[in-house]
């Protein structure tokens, strides 16, 4: 038996930081927000807790294995897109450690054109608004933010 999709999907998003840089992925081939930069992220699966989800998404999207003590939740963002569909994002951060993590890779080339580090203070102009709101909430120390709501 399949469970119906929730009306407000829950996303987990990772702000992987290296000094003043954040890792972004350029969406491609998904049919949604292609050509825009976003954080490594994904939907919470049925029966999955948020910490397990962010660890899973990190491994699936950028090939890094996070220890469960690494991700720290920093914000919740309630985002509504231009079509009026909304979602709740649980934003986690982790500090990148090359010696421990290895090099991040584009582990989903069928969904992502490339990954790149970008300055937290100067995200590319084609950054997806949900991602921009998550980074802004992190920078400003806001535990909760609205994005796309009038």
Automatic annotation (TrEMBL):
The keyword Hydrolase applies. Gene3D superfamilies: Nucleoside Triphosphate Pyrophosphohydrolase. Keywords: Hydrolase. Residues 6-140 form the Nudix hydrolase domain. Its cofactor is Mg(2+). InterPro entries: Nudix_hydrolase, NUDIX_hydrolase-like_dom_sf, NUDIX_hydrolase_CS, NUDIX_hydrolase_dom. Belongs to the Nudix hydrolase family. This is Nudix hydrolase domain-containing protein.
């Amino acid at each position: 038996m399949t469970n119906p999709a929730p009306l407000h999907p829950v996303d987990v998003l990772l702000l992987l930081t290296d000094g003043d840089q954040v890792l972004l992925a350029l969406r491609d081939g998904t049919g949604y927000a292609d050509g825009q930069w976003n954080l490594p992220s994904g939907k919470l699966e049925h029966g999955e807790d948020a910490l397990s989800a962010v660890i899973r998404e990190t491994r699936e999207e950028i090939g890094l294995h996070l220890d469960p003590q690494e991700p720290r939740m920093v914000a919740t963002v309630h985002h509504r897109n231009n079509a009026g569909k909304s979602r709740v994002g649980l934003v986690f951060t982790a500090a990148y450690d090359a010696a421990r993590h290895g090099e991040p890779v584009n582990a989903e080339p069928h969904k992502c054109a490339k990954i790149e580090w970008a300055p937290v203070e100067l995200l590319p102009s084609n950054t997806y608004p949900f991602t921009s709101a998550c980074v802004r909430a992190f920078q400003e120390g806001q535990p909760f933010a609205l994005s796309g709501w009038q």
